Please model this.
Amino acid sequence: MFDVIAFDADDTLWHNESIFTMTQQKFREMLSSHGPEVVDQTLSSTQLKNLKHFGYGIKGFILSMIETSIELTGGNVSGKEIQQVLDFGQEMLAAPIELMPHVHEVVEELSKNFNLLLITKGDLIDQEIKIARSGLADYFAAVEIVSDKTIETYKKILTQHKIDVSRFMMVGNSMRSDIVPIVQIGGHAVHIPYSSTWEHEQDHPYVDKNHYSELKHMGMLPKLIKEKK
Ligand SMILES: [Mg+2]
Model:
């Protein structure tokens, strides 16, 4: 049934959003003279506005935190506070890779029978470092780091690797990025929800639940693939 199984990386293979959530908590404390809701809302709208310039990832997040602190303080944010934000970013970049449960065994097992692809968005260098540190790099036939995950992005990758979409499975935590575009081009998608997902990734067009599978955790994937054979 399948030739290629592709995986999203952040919050599918390893924890990622939790690092952003923790940093945002520290950022709220830094700007504690403003209410946490105001800080969250301003940061969120700044991030969305900046996505088209900076893309996804930690660097864009740092710049958006700096911009938010300038805006909320009316330009009175101190150099010391900006340094604090930069330090938050350094800590995020240095955070250890924590694999999700079952990931190592499942990826290793599936790599014996399928070509595995890793398709992730974010900063190039940051993602390359995370993949290297994850201990999973050798199981993947190829890694694609893209600026966004749209129908066009996936079509390009499928063409490039000469993959028949009907024999392609994409596994990920984001409905918007990993599931909806794949269902729309006729591939198989497996949604493994993460405990917290950025609201932007939750915003997506409707797809019929019958057109993709949903699993509680990665450990259930090999069985699902066998059933689909
Ligand atoms: Mg993800």
Q: What stands out?
A: The pocket of magnesium ion is lined by residues 8, 10-12, 172-174 (CB under 6 Å).
